[in-house]
């Protein structure tokens, strides 16, 4: 949510303030919150971070020389940086 709030417009932040942690939040309100999360790019950014983490874990567990792993980690970091 911090990333969403940071990237949100004032209007989107108002939606978040009104709806997040609201005990009376309904399905329509939840859909509005999801729309803000998606439209700010926060969801895509988090998905990129997860893909990067998964890639690094796969690289670290692969039976290959450390210099090759280091190069692949660098490539994975650049791909994530380009996507965000």
Q: What does this 3D model show about the protein?
A:
- It is a single chain.
- By secondary structure, the chain is an all-alpha fold.
- Helix content is 80%, strand content 0%.
- The protein contains 5 helices and no strands.
- Helix 4 runs antiparallel to helix 5.
- The radius of gyration is 18 Å and the shape is elongated.
- The model has no long low-confidence stretch (mean pLDDT 90).
Describe the secondary structure blueprint for this structure:
Blueprint: H1 2-7, H2 10-19, H3 27-39, H4 42-61, H5 66-83
Short précis:
The chain is mainly α. 80% of the residues lie in helices and 0% in strands.
Taking the alpha carbons of the first and last residues, their distance comes to 17 Å
* Integer average pLDDT: 90
Largest sheet: none
Order of helices and strands: HHHHH
The Rg value, from CA coordinates, equals 18 Å
Estimate what percentage of residues fall within beta strands: under 5%
């Amino acid at each position: 949510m911090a990333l969403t709030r940071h990237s949100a417009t004032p209007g989107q932040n108002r939606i978040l303030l009104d709806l997040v942690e609201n005990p009376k939040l309904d399905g329509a309100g939840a859909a509005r919150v999801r729309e803000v999360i998606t439209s700010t790019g926060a969801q895509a950014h988090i998905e990129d971070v997860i893909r990067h983490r998964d890639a690094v874990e796969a690289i670290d567990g692969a039976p290959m020389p450390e210099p090759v792993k280091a190069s692949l980690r660098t490539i994975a970091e650049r791909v994530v940086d380009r996507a965000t």
